[in-house]
Amino acid sequence: MKTKIIISENTKENFDLIYSSFPKSKIVVVSDKTVNDLYEDFFPFPNLVLQSGEKNKEFSNIEIVLNFFIKNNLSKSDTVIAFGGGGIIDLVGLCATIYKRGINLINYPTTLLSMTDAAIGGKNAVNFSGIKNSVGAFLQPTFVFSDINFLKTLDQDDILSGIGEIIKYAVLGAENLYEYLENFEANKNKIIQSCSSFKLDITSQDPFDKGKRKLLNLGHTFGHAIESVEKLKLSHGSSVINGILMIGRFAVSQNLLSNEDFKAIQSLINKFDFPIKEYDFHKLWEYVLEDKKINSDMINLVIPTAKDHCIIKQYFIDDFYEALRCI
Q: DSSP letters along 110-123, please?
């Protein structure tokens, strides 16, 4: 079943669609404290409120959410709404996957990052033993409701984190994003639509991450390593931007990306106030070796070959290591 993405500011129409789609379903909500403080009465359903931030994705929260499902006597035909940012959406999606081998899932993202990326595609995971997204599963949400009114409550760091993933989509080739990002405020709806359509198209073709979907990992091999080194103190989007710059420099060194196109990517990134940092290669490498894209002694890398095009290329781990050391 293909996810339906609704980009709408009409809450009543959104609710009517939920009720008509699940007329006999019991519905519950899982959110976090930040979202609940802002929108406590948004949904007329039982609501579990968790702590805010990346701590949502701690392994121990799985038991809390599953106990909430049991307390509310959810059956296999019932529905959970993940109401929040990427952390809540990842956690709730995983719990919806494993509870009774799958219940209905609706994502109601409240951050730019989750509207353009985390809420779409059905990939759900939590962190375990200090390793980012190391325990997960797939479950496609029935609906994703993106309401840009929620963006009004976000601080600049949250907006910037979302723009980090949006730039990823621009480098992958999502339609018109270089143009739209010239004026983010005026083009928010168009940007969310472009990213959503691009990701939904790819994940519909490759729902279980076996081929083309791997393109969506652009910047994430180093980005996740950076998040681990930073102990999650640097936002996901900013970590991905640093990761895109690192893999871009690697692509230039391998004659896969021209200096002109790399400068175009840098120019797009420089329109925004990202914290660009230099990292100790050896510290990052320890976490790169934990990357899920490693298979035996090979690693799949998403490499930009133009300012708006990327390929998936395999390298032997040892060859990749030596090539990186020489940059």
A: -SHHIIIIITSSSE
